[in-house]
Amino acid sequence: MNLPNALTLLRIFIVPLLVVVLQVAQPGIVTPNWVSATMRFAIPLAIIAACQTLTMLTGGIDLSVSVVASMAAYVMATTVSDVGWVTASFIALLTGAVVGLVNSALMKSGSILIPNFVSDSARCCAATIRWQLPAGSAASPTRT
Q1: Contacts 24+ apart (CB under 8 A), 119-126
Q2: Where do the domains of the chain lie?
Q3: Among 28, 60, 64, 122, which one has the highest count of C-beta atoms within 10 angstroms of its own C-beta?
């Protein structure tokens, strides 16, 4: 039987240890609502991290994952009041899928003479700037 090394034990016990330290530092903060809120925030990040891990294990790198996820969340947040959460979820998933496919096609095409790392970073910056424009500006999607 192999005994776990110190690093494995540290990984297993670090989160409970940090929760105990947090409770000692600020008594009463660790409640069922706190645990629930922490899990709700951590689960999407864990899903994205797992997908990015699979991407890297297959020999790729995709820097646009966080931008596409943020953009899909933005699309859902801005459309949910108009069309309801089911339709907004579908629109957000469709938007993320289309942008992901375009990014994948651009990264895999041999016609681009720019390294994938540079082109992926540029697309991330362009998407971030595009969705953060104030409403009514010349390039804003909500300009009338």
Answers
A1: 120/61, 120/62, 120/63, 120/64, 121/63, 123/64, 123/67, 124/63, 124/64, 124/66, 124/67
A2: 61-134
A3: 64
Q: In angstroms, rounded to a whole number, what is the distance separating the alpha carbons of residues 37 and 15?
A: 16
Residue type, 15: V
Prediction pTM value: 0.58
What amino acid is encoded at 116 in this protein?
Answer: N
Residues listed for the chain:
144
For 61, how many CA atoms within 13 A lie in the half-sphere containing its CB? Answer: 8
Would you state the structure tokens that stand for residue 5, as one six-digit string?
A: 């090394």
